Write the structure tokens for this entry.
Amino acid sequence: MKHLVTALFLIVCFTSVRGQYRKLMPFELACDADLVVVAKIKSMDPLRFSGEVTQVVAGEASGGVVSVQRFINTKVAKRWGKYAVGESLLLFLRKDGEHYKIMGEGGEGEKLIMGEEVCIDSRGDGLKNRFGYHSTPSGANIYAEKVPLQDYVGAIQEVRGCAKVAYVEKTTVDQKVEQHPVVTLSCEGPQKDAIYGKSWVHSTMMEQAEKHVKGAQ
């Protein structure tokens, strides 16, 4: 009986671990994206959506439109609702041939914008001042932190200009190989302090980056 209980415990633990994934932190999204844009969905098909770019935050977008592979829900990460024409999004993207992919295994690189605020939903990590439920334009509820869009955009640009990210491989207990960030900072002293002083979004993102500076892990 004791052996059976032990075996069941190990199975539960193994299943739990397999159901997890390493969420990309906000500073990783900011520093490692090929392209960061504010875009509004203008059309879509079952695989992708086309977003009309209204603001280029980082990187280069040609033609004013990006073609992005849609995020598909998994057992451990779900979008706040179905894709809808007219949705405004903050997108952290990686180039994938002629198209782009949303960063993060759980779709962390896709944020809903409502009015002048961006919603950091439960797939995101680290920018948690106060979470709550918010009704979206499509009628869905999103469990998220609402952040002033321009604060977030400014933090992306400032931290991206200060921190460079590389990755090292680490093996998890279930033998899954994950990429973990190592940061190099190019700003110090007053320049770094100025970033911390601009908003809680800036300071939180910068603090995250500093925790992953090479030699500080």
Q: What stands out?
A: Residues 155-211 form one domain. Residues 2-18 form the longest helix (17 residues).
